[in-house]
């Protein structure tokens, strides 16, 4: 029994490691791609979906021999939402949305979940939950407002050009808002499906990525154009292997691999830990990614942005009631320390 216990405690630790290493480096490679070609969202989404679909087809469905536990018709609804969210989120980077704002905005998923939970599931929440959502909302509002000022001042080439850039930015904000609400709606749909058929996360991961693949035919010209641009980028020698390939293809391959590591990490976390722990780990991971994006890529970030970010993360931690969980834990720790 004793020999078997360490792996049990190892798995959550491994999952946290995978989430931080995979998700943080994934954001870095996405930003490296988006900085060079802001419109590359579709090829990135396609590559990620294709990789996860092929992996799932081999290991999850056993080359199509295993029947799904959840009827395909439910997956088709889920997939329509998931595909839309992924494409819209990646396309927003093409609409003058800076990566830090993109990250902060997507942290607003709690607001969207709560609003739709009240409307659709008729849920009611405590005062602390409403307060935490207010903090997140204010934080996102501050960051968005400051980014809006940067967009208008940066585009002071001429008044007409400035307005044109600002209108595209507003469209980007609208796209992010839509993706946020659609993502929350998908979460509620998944919740009701899992209650009915049980949790089948690996299966859901496969079908959510495999079924939308035909949809990429609609985006084929854009994907092909970016594949050509990627092939024309400067050659890069992969360390340790000695293989030389265009640097943008290297970034894309690394983005796909790190995305997979990130998704696997979150999957292990959801099966091993409480939803509170998952939210906390994912939130902290977003914060680390944000700081890295600002420092490494020198993204413009004012004191107001920091204040907004602080509000978003305080609200998120308050929502997950992490303070309530940490209180008793610290008290127990103090008691044990006194005994010693």
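^ structure tokens above, recovered residues below v
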């Amino acid at each position: 029994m004793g020999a078997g216990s360490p792996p049990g405690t190892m798995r959550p630790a491994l999952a946290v490691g995978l989430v931080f290493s995979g998700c943080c480096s994934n954001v870095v490679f996405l930003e490296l791609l988006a900085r060079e070609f802001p419109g590359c969202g579709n090829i990135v989404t396609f590559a990620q979906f294709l990789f996860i679909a092929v992996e799932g087809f081999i290991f999850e469905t056993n080359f199509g021999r295993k029947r799904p536990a959840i009827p395909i018709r439910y997956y088709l609804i889920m997939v329509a939402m998931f595909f839309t969210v992924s494409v819209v989120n990646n396309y927003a980077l093409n609409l003058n949305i800076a990566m830090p704002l993109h990250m902060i905005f997507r942290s607003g998923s709690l607001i969207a979940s709560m609003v739709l939970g009240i409307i659709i599931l008729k849920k009611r929440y405590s005062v602390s939950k409403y307060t935490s959502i207010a903090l997140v909302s204010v934080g996102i509002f501050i960051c968005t407002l400051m980014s809006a000022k940067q967009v208008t001042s940066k585009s002071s080439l001429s008044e007409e050009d400035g307005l044109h850039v600002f209108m595209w930015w507003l469209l980007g904000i609208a796209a992010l808002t839509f993706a946020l609400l659609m993502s929350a709606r998908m979460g509620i749909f998944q919740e009701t499906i899992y209650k009915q058929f049980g949790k089948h996360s690996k299966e859901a991961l496969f079908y959510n990525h495999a079924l939308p693949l035909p949809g990429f035919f609609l985006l084929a010209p854009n994907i092909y154009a970016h594949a050509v641009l990627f092939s024309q980028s400067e050659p890069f020698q992969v360390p340790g292997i000695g293989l030389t390939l265009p640097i943008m293809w290297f970034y894309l391959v690394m983005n796909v691999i790190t995305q997979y590591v990130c998704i696997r990490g979150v999957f292990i976390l959801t099966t091993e830990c409480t939803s509170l722990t998952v939210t906390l780990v994912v939130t902290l991971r977003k914060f680390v990614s944000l700081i890295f994006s600002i420092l490494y890529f020198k993204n413009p970030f004012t004191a107001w942005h920091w204040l907004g970010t602080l509000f978003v993360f305080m609200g998120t931690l308050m929502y997950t009631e992490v303070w309530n969980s940490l209180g008793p834990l610290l008290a127990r720790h103090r008691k044990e320390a006194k005994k010693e």
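The two ends are 29 Å apart (CA to CA).
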